C-alpha cells in the first residue's frame, strides 16, 4: 500500500489536471475481499494546449489490486471521442505491449502506462472516417507531410462537444445554408412578443445540430464558425483556424490539383448515375412527382388528348352521315 501511495503521488505531480484516484474497500458481503484503487486519467494529444487541434480523447482507467505491483493492473478505456473500435484496440494494444516489453514483473507501471497513452493519442491525432457531407476520407496517410490535411486545423472543422469532424469547406457551406433556413423559418412563423412563451422557446431552440449525431452545436463552436465565415474579430481571413473556412469556401484552397481532378471525376460519375436514374424514372421527387418526369408526362398527356380529340371528331362526322 505504501508503494502504491508513493506512485500515486508521483502521478499527481506529473498530471495535475485530469487525474482522479478512488480507493474501494473490500466488499462487506465477502464477494470481493480485496481492496483496490482505481486511477482515471483523461488523455488527449499533446498539442500545446490548443484544443482546436485535438481530434481524439479518451479516459484511461487503471484498477490496482492490493497485491500490485506483483499483480498486473486491469486496464480499460472509456468516454472515447474521435476514436472508433479499431483505433481503441490500437491504444489498448500499445498499453499492453509497453507493460510487457519495458517493465519487469513486479515493477511499477503507472507512469509508463500513462505516458504510453499520451504518446499513442498524439500519434493518432487526426480525424478518422469520411466527411458526412461529401463522403470523402477526412484524412489520408499518403498525403505529403506539408499537405494541409496532415494534422492541419485549416482543413477540418471539429465540434468540441462530440468531436465529430468535417471538411472545412463542406461544413462552411452547410452552416451558411442552415443559418439561412433558420432565418427564413423565423420570418415565416412571424414575430412573437418579447418575453412570451413562444419567443422564449424559439430563442432556446438550437438552430444548428451536428450532422452526424444531432447534438446541439455549442456557443463556442458556433461563435468560432461565424468568425471563420465573416472574417471579423481581427482574424486574418486567409490564415489561421478562424480563417480556414473562408479560404475553403472561396475555392477549396487547401486542395491540390490532383484533389480537384479527383473531385471533378467523382462529380461526373455522380451526374452520369443521376441521368441513368432519371431516364429510368427512378428519381424520387424529381419535379412534383415521385419517379415521374413531369415534362415528358405532360407532353404525353397532351399528345394523348389531341389524339382523343381527333378520334372524337371523326366519330361525330360518321354519326352525321
What is the structure about, briefly put?
With 321 residues, this protein is α+β, with helices and mostly antiparallel strands. The protein contains 9 helices and 6 strands.
Describe the protein's topology:
Elements: H1 2-14, E1 19-24, E2 36-43, E3 57-65, E4 74-81, H2 85-102, H3 110-123, E5 156-158, E6 165-167, H4 168-189, H5 197-204, H6 219-230, H7 244-249, H8 257-279, H9 294-320
Antiparallel strand pairs: 1-2, 2-3, 3-4, 5-6
Helix pairs in contact: 2-3
Describe the structure.
GO terms for molecular function: ubiquitin protein ligase activity; zinc ion binding. By secondary structure, the protein is α+β, with helices and mostly antiparallel strands. The chain has a domain at 2-123: Ubiquitin Conjugating Enzyme (Roll), CATH 3.10.110.10. It contains 9 helices and 6 strands. β3 and β4 form a beta hairpin. The longest helix has 27 residues, at 294-320. The radius of gyration is 30 Å and the shape is elongated. The termini are far apart. The model is unreliable at 145-151, 231-254, 287-301 and 311-321 (pLDDT under 50).
The side-by-side strand order for the widest beta sheet comes to 1-2-3-4
The name of the CATH superfamily of the domain at 2-123 reads: Ubiquitin Conjugating Enzyme
pLDDT under 50 segments (min length 5)? 145-151, 231-254, 287-301, 311-321
CATH architecture annotation of the domain at 2-123: Roll
Please bin the fraction of helical residues.
40-55%
Number-wise, the strands total: 6
Mean pLDDT: 74
Name of the top-level CATH class of the domain at 2-123: Alpha Beta
Q: What Rg, in angstroms, do the CA atoms define? A: 30 Å
Number of helices: 9
Major sheet description? 4 strands, antiparallel
Strand content: 5-15%
Distance between the termini: 118 Å
Q: Say what the CATH topology of the domain at 2-123 is.
A: Ubiquitin Conjugating Enzyme
Principal-axes geometry comes out as: elongated
Domain RING-type: 131-214
InterPro entries: RNF25, RWD_dom, UBQ-conjugating_enzyme/RWD, Znf_RING, Znf_RING/FYVE/PHD
Domain RWD: 6-124
GO molecular function, one term: zinc ion binding
Amino acid at each position: 500500500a505504501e508503494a502504491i501511495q508513493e506512485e500515486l503521488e508521483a502521478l499527481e505531480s506529473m498530471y495535475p489536471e485530469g487525474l482522479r484516484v478512488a480507493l474501494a474497500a473490500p466488499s462487506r458481503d465477502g464477494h470481493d475481499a480485496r481492496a483496490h484503487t482505481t486511477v482515471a486519467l483523461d488523455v488527449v494529444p499533446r498539442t500545446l494546449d490548443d484544443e482546436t487541434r485535438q481530434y481524439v480523447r479518451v479516459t484511461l482507467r487503471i484498477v490496482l489490486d492490493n497485491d500490485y505491483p506483483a499483480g498486473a493492473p486491469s486496464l480499460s478505456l472509456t468516454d472515447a471521442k474521435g476514436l472508433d473500435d479499431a483505433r481503441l484496440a490500437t491504444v489498448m494494444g500499445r498499453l499492453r505491449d509497453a507493460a510487457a516489453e519495458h517493465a519487469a514483473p513486479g515493477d511499477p507501471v503507472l507512469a509508463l502506462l500513462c505516458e504510453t497513452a499520451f504518446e499513442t493519442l498524439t500519434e493518432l491525432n487526426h480525424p478518422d472516417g469520411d466527411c458526412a457531407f461529401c463522403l470523402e476520407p477526412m484524412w489520408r496517410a499518403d498525403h505529403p507531410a506539408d499537405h494541409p490535411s496532415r494534422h492541419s486545423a485549416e482543413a477540418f472543422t471539429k465540434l468540441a462537444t462530440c468531436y465529430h469532424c468535417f471538411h472545412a469547406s463542406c461544413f462552411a457551406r452547410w452552416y451558411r445554408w442552415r443559418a439561412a433556413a433558420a432565418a427564413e423559418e423565423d420570418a415565416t412563423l412571424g414575430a412573437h412578443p418579447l418575453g412570451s412563451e413562444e419567443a422564449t422557446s424559439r430563442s432556446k431552440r438550437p438552430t444548428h445540430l451536428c450532422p452526424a449525431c444531432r447534438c446541439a452545436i455549442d456557443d463556442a463552436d458556433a461563435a468560432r464558425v461565424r468568425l471563420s465565415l465573416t472574417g471579423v474579430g481581427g482574424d486574418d481571413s486567409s490564415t489561421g483556424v478562424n480563417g480556414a473556412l473562408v479560404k475553403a469556401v472561396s475555392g477549396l484552397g487547401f486542395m491540390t490539383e490532383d484533389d480537384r481532378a479527383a473531385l471533378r471525376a467523382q462529380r461526373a460519375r455522380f451526374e452520369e448515375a443521376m441521368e441513368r436514374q432519371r431516364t429510368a424514372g427512378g428519381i424520387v421527387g424529381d419535379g412534383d412527382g415521385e419517379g415521374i418526369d413531369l415534362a415528358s408526362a405532360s407532353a404525353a398527356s397532351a399528345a394523348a388528348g389531341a389524339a382523343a380529340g381527333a378520334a372524337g371528331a371523326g366519330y361525330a362526322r360518321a354519326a352525321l352521315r
